Automatic annotation (TrEMBL):
Keywords: Glycoprotein, Lyase, Repeat, Signal. SUPFAM superfamilies: NHL repeat (SSF101898). It comes from Bradyrhizobium symbiodeficiens. CDD domains: NHL_PAL_like. This is Peptidyl-alpha-hydroxyglycine alpha-amidating lyase family protein.
């Protein structure tokens, strides 16, 4: 029987072996996922075919991005089905159509800004859009900043610096917005999500999270909820400590936990377990798609074990089907 995660109204059935790829293809790490208006699933991955497109049953439709993307990291889709693809390997954000035509590039490919300079970009991580279509970019591994751009790619402002105080970041890893224009930032190694207004004014923070990595706003404009992908321990000393993830947490707009999916007994490849949730998207039926960087994370979580072939093939993409009966 497929594993069931969660409880009450938030119960999800794991769809094992979801992705059905052409023979010989591998996704390897799935850095991020997005779902368009027709429930097609866009899988931004670090394999030979960076963008793999599936239907909601996991059937392969097409791929694109070969020779274009250096290292997949973040993916966001707007109301017009434009894809915002964040490439931390060449320090760019590309706005693309659903068949891969590049409409806008922000950043200079292969030209990072100086480390921790605050100037865009040095290994940028993700994007989100304001209600007016302005583009927020989390700039995340070689900077500790959020940048705000006009819809046509002109820099408006930036905020953030390294540290642990409000408005400071320690790996600004993901970013999301809601219909009211609030900006939510996964401040991963500070174990929190920070909330800002649209101009970068600090509002509050959500705690009781473990290395929040993926961040998805869902649930409608009037009562948004958020699904947060949390990484498990990253140190040898706490590698086998329970109740630290990897897992998914569902919270309301104030950061109060509604449900938690998995993670009690650490990472794994068995049905119902996670490896390293890195990107999350929901379809029109409320089903959750989880991209994981299980290949990159394998030696951290399982330093004495050989990686199963399935991890490189398709295991880094999971579908959780909402239980509706």
């Amino acid at each position: 029987m497929p594993a069931i995660l969660g409880s009450g109204e938030h119960r999800y059935r794991v769809v094992d072996n979801f992705a059905k790829l052409p023979a010989g293809w591998q996704l390897t790490d799935v850095a991020s996922v997005a779902v368009d208006s027709k429930d097609r699933v866009y899988v931004f991955n670090r394999g030979a075919h960076p963008m793999v497109v599936l239907d909601r049953d996991g059937n392969f439709l097409r791929s694109f991005g070969e020779g274009l993307f250096s290292r997949a990291h973040g993916l966001h889709i707007d109301a017009d089905d434009n894809l915002f693809c964040t490439d931390d390997g060449d320090h760019t954000v590309r706005k693309c159509t659903t068949d891969g035509k590049v409409l806008l590039t922000i950043g200079i490919p292969e030209k990072p800004s100086p480390f921790m300079s605050g100037e865009p970009f040095h290994r940028c991580t993700h994007t989100a859009l304001s209600p007016k279509g302005e583009i927020y970019v989390s700039d995340g591994y070689g900077n500790a900043r959020v940048h705000k751009y006009t819809p046509d790619g002109k820099l408006l402002k930036s905020w953030g610096e390294p540290g642990t105080d409000p408005g400071q970041f320690n790996i600004v890893h993901n970013i999301a917005t809601d219909a009211d224009g609030w900006v939510y930032v996964a401040d991963r190694e500070n174990h929190r999500v920070q909330v800002f207004d649209g101009n970068g004014r600090y509002e509050t923070q959500w705690n009781n999270l473990h290395r929040p990595c993926a961040l998805c706003c869902c649930g409608g404009a009037k009562s948004p909820t958020f699904v947060i992908g949390e990484l498990g321990p990253g140190l040898a000393i706490n590698r086998k400590v329970p109740n630290l993830g990897p897992r998914l947490s569902i919270v309301d707009a104030k950061g109060n936990r509604i449900a938690r999916l998995g993670g009690e007994d650490g990472p794994g490849v068995a049905s119902g377990k996670f490896l390293a949730p890195h990107g999350i998207a929901l379809d029109s039926k409320g089903d959750i798609y989880v991209g994981e960087v299980g290949v990159t994370n394998w030696d951290t979580s399982f330093p004495d074990e050989d990686m199963p072939a399935a991890v490189r093939a398709t295991r880094c993409l999971q579908k959780l089907e909402r239980v509706r009966e």
